[in-house]
Amino acid sequence: MLRCLILALALFAATAAGATEAGWALLRDGGHVVLLRHAFAPGSGEPANFDIEKCNTQRNLSDAGRQQARKLGALFAARAAPVERVLTSRWCRTKETARLAFGTDDVEAFHALDPFAPDSPEKDAQSREVLDEVRAWSGSGNMVMVTHLENIAALTGENAREGEAVIVQLRDEGLHVLGRIRF
């Protein structure tokens, strides 16, 4: 039984590493869009006193999350075509992830990347706005959109871990996942 578990874990690790390498290969060519879930921020949901203008009222990155964001930025710089544009939700954990990873000058807040409840009436409108941004992207480098789990799930039908990059392409009227990079 233990041998089977070890074998399964080894196969999972090898598959994840292969997927990550394939993701880097895509990003080396540039011209791609990346949905990046913010780095590690302990807990779930927002505190009762949440205020979008005050980071001290939000769930924020931990020290490990800040380290993760710096690491992913260094890896992007070393392994991918330049990041030409960075959009984030207005939540502090996404803005901090973007700033630590890609630098302060390149970050633009984009309300359509803000989290929403699964049954929210804003969900469809926000998703359409994100799709419009993807449709309009024509840079030679990559565009990164730092957002939240619920947004990535709504746009792709797939989940992402904290700090995971999901490389997407517009297909039909939605986003198709081309690759993933796990940090």
> Strand order, biggest sheet?
3-2-4-1-5-6
Q: CATH topology, which one?
A: Rossmann fold
The parts where pLDDT drops under 50 for at least 5 residues are 4-18
Number of strands: 6
Radius of gyration: 16 Å
Average pLDDT over all residues: 87
Q: What would you call the structural class?
A: alpha/beta
Kindly list the characteristics that best describe this protein.
single chain, globular, 183 residues, alpha/beta, six-stranded mixed beta sheet, 5 helices, Rossmann fold, 6 strands, 43% helix
Question: Helix and strand layout, with pairings?
Answer:
Layout: H1 2-28, E1 33-37, H2 63-79, E2 83-88, H3 92-102, E3 107-109, H4 122-136, E4 142-147, H5 149-156, E5 165-171, E6 174-181
Parallel strand pairs: 1-4, 2-3, 2-4
Antiparallel strand pairs: 1-5, 5-6
InterPro entries: His_Pase_superF_clade-1, His_PPase_superfam
Pfam families: His_Phos_1 (PF00300)
Signal peptide: 1-19
